[in-house]
Amino acid sequence: MKTLATIAELRATLDAARAGGQTVGFVPTMGYLHDGHASLMRQAGGETDVVVASICVNPLQFGPSEDLEAYPRDLERDTALAEASGVDLLFVPDLAEMYPSPVQTTVSVAGVSEPLEGASRPTHFAGVATVVAKLFAIAGPCRAYFGAKDFQQVAVVRRMVRDLSLPVEVVACPTLRERDGLAMSSRNVYLTPAEREAAPVLYTALRAGAAAIGAGERDPAAVRELMAGIIEAEPLARLDYAEVVDADSFLVPDPLAGNLRLLAAVRFGRARLIDNVGVTV
Ligand code: AMP
């Protein structure tokens, strides 16, 4: 594996690979890698010839009172994990390389970016779309791998790719979980032992919502209240939102029908965790 720090080097390397007939798989991350990231890298390795992963804690996607400074970083460990997961090129630009001078161009996606995470974190998805558009412009034609853990993020990226005709095929990969159901996340490191023990309630609530729909519940408010009740019964959890939406439009069908996604965000101390599950009726 080679680590590259400049846009010019990465672009030249990937252009040469494509000119030689190779396909490119791309896994954008913010680092502090775990097995969820590794699963994306391994899937990319199975489906493309050259796997590039990027590590960039992107300031544009953090709100002013969020955890940009505290976000965990460990490049040495990340380098070892990326290499062990089949990454060929690790792109680690510093901030000056990614954002020379003030950024005056941003990408924002309407519609799917507005509810849920978009309502709680109003500048978040424009920050994500901007950095991902930039990374796609640097990487060039590729298959890009994203985790379904960040389900709304995948929808925003897909919509951006479609609207801007970017030469990228977006691939959504399943969420990797700890044994007790907690979705793997770099932010899990913020949890105290007691919060860590409480945190699986997020997935428990989502599954209970999906089970209720599976058993015939069609009222979105009832599903929302069921999930909220389970989360609020945990004293260490502070509910941000728990919702069921159409998996494509992110609108709430009433009565519930079609391809649905249940999504929730919950705070445990300094950690704000998100998760989601799907159900089709
Ligand atoms: P992040 O470093 O948190 O920005 O995540 C980088 C990529 O890894 C995103 O596409 C995430 O959706 C994905 N990812 C994060 N956690 C998981 C997980 N538990 N399972 C699968 N993919 C994940």
H/I helix tally: 10
Q: Biggest sheet: strands side by side, in what order?
A: 1-4-3-2-5-6
Strand count, sense and barrel status of the largest sheet are: 6 strands, parallel
Mean pLDDT: 98
Report the order of strands and helices: EHEHEHEHHHEHEHHHEEE
Strand-residue proportion: 15-25%
Cα gyration radius (Å): 19 Å
Structural class based on helices, strands and sheet pairing: alpha/beta
Helix fraction, binned, reads 25-40%
Determine the N-to-C terminus distance: 45 Å
Q: Pick out the low-confidence regions.
A: none
User: What hetero molecules are bound to the protein chains?
Assistant: adenosine monophosphate
Give me the count of strands: 9
Dominant shape: globular
Task: Give the structure's gist in a few sentences.
This protein is of the alpha/beta class. The protein is 38% helix and 21% strand.
